[in-house]
Amino acid sequence: MGILKNSRKSVLLNVYIESNMDKDFFILSSRKDAFFIIDLCGRLVFVNPLLEQLVDYSQTELLSMELCDLFGEKGLNKYGDFFEGKDPETLNNFDVQVVTRGEQVLNVNITSFPIYFEEEFLGSYIVLKNVTSFKVKRELKAEKEKHFWQLVEHSPEPIFIIQNSEIKKINKRAISLLGFNEQNKWTGSSLLEFIHPESQELFKQKISRVFHADIPEPFEQKMIRLDGDVLIVEMTAFPTIYNGEPGCHLIVKDISENRRLSLVSQKQAIAGQLAAGLAHEIRNPITAIKGFLQLILRENVENQRVFLEIIDSEITRIEAILKELLVLAKPGKHKEEWVNIRDLLEQVVTLMESQALLNNVQIQKQLSSVNAMVRGDENQLKQVFINYIKNSIDAMADGGKLIISGMTIGENSVQIKVIDQGGGIPQEIIDKVGNPFFTTKENGTGLGMLVSNQIIKDHKGSMFIKSDAIGTCVEVHLPAKL
Fold it and tell me: Which residues are CB-contacts of 219 (< 8 A; sequence separation ≥ 6)?
């Protein structure tokens, strides 16, 4: 019965083909399209000349073929009478590959129309469009886009793609810059949310120029991270296309640290000029006073001589301090000699013990492990540790314990720590310690830590400050030999 039914449908399909021959089937396709008709078994029962040209088979050859001969078995259903995953009794549109006589694989777009007669499904009318060149171009475009986004993703600078200030795409550097994490949803956010209010008007003006094909010069902006920190950035903007729509490609460079260092350098230059002027202005009268005192010393009686010697000694000390102050004006110049760092620290502690006792501070030395030689200027190094210890004593208004420890690190370095039990340095100002003229002391100049840091730097060392509610630790590393 099934065979008779299929035979009847084959007859009806032939009638359909003959009745539409004059129309050339162009109702369903254009005159430039290749097409063919298949029966319910997937056999080709009609082909047009354009299909012959497309696959390089003659009409006779094609009419002896089935779908699997042109499209291979992988692209068809298990019966081989239609395409895999497609319902032959409905309209379909999809891409597939067809194999020509020369075994060339072409990418084609298929549109299949079901053929009905008196509500009976007879076969399928299949139109082919060669999209090989289009698909190659599309694949090349996709590959270029993929390569472009790889470059964006691995860029050392933060990159934003925006449309009307809305963030469409950003790279990992940009995510880090704004302080996002995996839980934060940045897609769809407005970049204006992260532009400081005082910079928003300038930002809008610059981006507007981009959308009018006028690329602005790099410009500075203030940005606000999720955690509230304010950054100074340099933005470079130029037009781009994202998802077929005009957009703006923003490269953002964080220059906050460069700006801070530039400001520090300016302050240090000013501090150096002030220090040089101060040192020279004071040195002249000190020289005169010392000269006259030396003359008096030759003529005075013995009981007055003791006091005059003290005055002479103190003036000598002032001269020494002024010399150290000149470190700001002439950094990098110091006396080079090998200094036993433990002996130096012992001398410094002895010098500072009286001041510590007056402030109810007990100095505890832990110097047995620091028997090493440091290359540098002994007086300058003493000045550094005197400054650190004095700061620690001042920090302990109610007294406490002050630890001076030292140890060797490997064979080429020593570590010295000055640890106090003061109230600690507030986290909001700890980064300002060492800036020119920054001080928390009522009568401080704000130059002590700056001078000390410069001396350490001149000795090819480094200094770190760690602080909490328990106290502060100043840690110094210096190159040394055992």
Answer: 202, 206, 234, 235
Into which CATH architecture does domain 2-130 fall? 2-Layer Sandwich (3.30)
Quote the pTM value.
Answer: 0.37
Using alpha carbons, select from 404, 396, 371, 272 the residue that is nearest to residue 326: 272
Name the fold adopted by 152-254: Beta-Lactamase (3.30.450)
| Tens digits of residue pLDDT in 148-179 | 666 777 777 888 888 888 888 888 888 888 88
Helix, strand, or coil (residue 64) = coil
Q: Which of 302, 219, 299, 217 is nearest to 253 (CA)?
A: 219
Half-sphere CA count of 169, side-chain side, radius 13 A: 13
Question: How many degrees, rounded to 5, is the angle at CA 196 between CA 192 and CA 198?
Answer: 110
Helix or strand holding residue 232 (H, E): strand 230-242
pLDDT, mean of residues 412-425: 86
Rounded distance between C-alpha atoms, residue 393 and residue 421, angstroms: 9
Could you tell me the CATH superfamily of domain 337-479? Histidine kinase-like ATPase, C-terminal domain (3.30.565.10)
Answer whether 405's CB lies under 8 Å from 383's CB: no
The predicted model gives 398-427 an average pLDDT of 86
Summarised one tens digit per residue, pLDDT across range 319-353 is 665 665 565 555 545 578 889 999 999 888 887 88
Confidence class for position 56, pLDDT limits 50, 70, 90:
very high
Q: Which residue has the tokens 């100095």?
A: 363
